[in-house]
Here is the input.
Amino acid sequence: MTSISLTRFLIEEQRSRRQITPDLRLLIEVVARACKHISLAIGRGALGGVLGDAGAINVQGEAQKKLDVLSNEILLEANEWGGHLAALASEEMDEPHLIPHRYPKGNYLLVFDPLDGSSNIDVNISVGTIFSVLRCPEGVTEPVAEHFLQPGTEQVAAGYTVYGPSTLLVLTTGSGVHQFTLDREIGSFVLTRRDLRIPEDTSEFAINMSNQRHWEPPMQRYIQELLEGKAGPRGRDFNMRWVASMVADVHRIMTRGGVFFYPLDAKTRDKGGKLRLLYEANPMAFLVEQAGGAATDGRQRLLERRPLALHQRVPVFLGSRNEIERVTRMHLEHDAART
Ligand code: AHM
Ligand code: MG
Here is the structure.
């Protein structure tokens, strides 16, 4: 069988579907190249001196790891000079990063979480990169945070990489979700699965159970019913997994179905949730919907939320459609009963 590289895949998509512009293709290839570089750094681990804390705090108030900082720099440097972007924004930077004046500017905005699952770096568990591509609003030459505040339905592409036993890139440009595996010998991403589909039903869920006592009542009730298994109202047993790297948890769902929740809880209520809308929730929601799954904030479709701030946080519910619809309905019924 001929192997199809990411480059060939994108060129063929560009020919058959006009919506992949040459600049979008370049953008995706540049992001993929930066991710190869990150993958190499992660792979060297302690030998590369990249483990441990960077000694700084990011805009989220979280201690940065050396690899958070390095991955952010790799993505910035790779994307500055190609002429495909108007600006970039990242979990690790307070404000958007403008393209330096010495380089040409393009029409896209790139927003990313350079290293998701940072708490897993030092224990050698899978981490990843998440990214989302938006259009720069017409006539804007110096984009500021406000120009990134577009609902997820406006995304033109989204993807994630998983740095695990193998390095994977999972991508959508709005016509299905496709998986590429990094061939370390030839140094390129190769198409390994076309059209990933998330089954509508599942018996596997992912949630950080240690927050149980802090959840809202409908979340408590939904999970309690799963835990009661065969003897409870659901009449069947459910299995649980929690990697604490969203990319790894979402990738399991992309592979064999399941649901992932980071619901509102008493600890994160004031911030709106734990995960960030623009570079965690929205790209994952786009990918999950493209694979036939569903994604909400517990009450409404994630992709329709109007962002209010670059680093806004939201509750995240995504995965197999029937479970996401059920838990969302339980939240809405709970709200209706209170009014
Ligand atoms: P990060 O982007 O700083 O790594 O944080 C996001 C991560 C997600 O990958 C993961 O689902 C979640 O935080 C884990 O949270 P917890 O530590 O509560 O289990
Ligand atoms: Mg993250």
About this structure: The chain has a mean pLDDT of 95. The radius of gyration is 20 Å. Residues 204-338 form a domain with the D-Maltodextrin-Binding Protein; domain 2 fold (CATH 3.40.190.80).
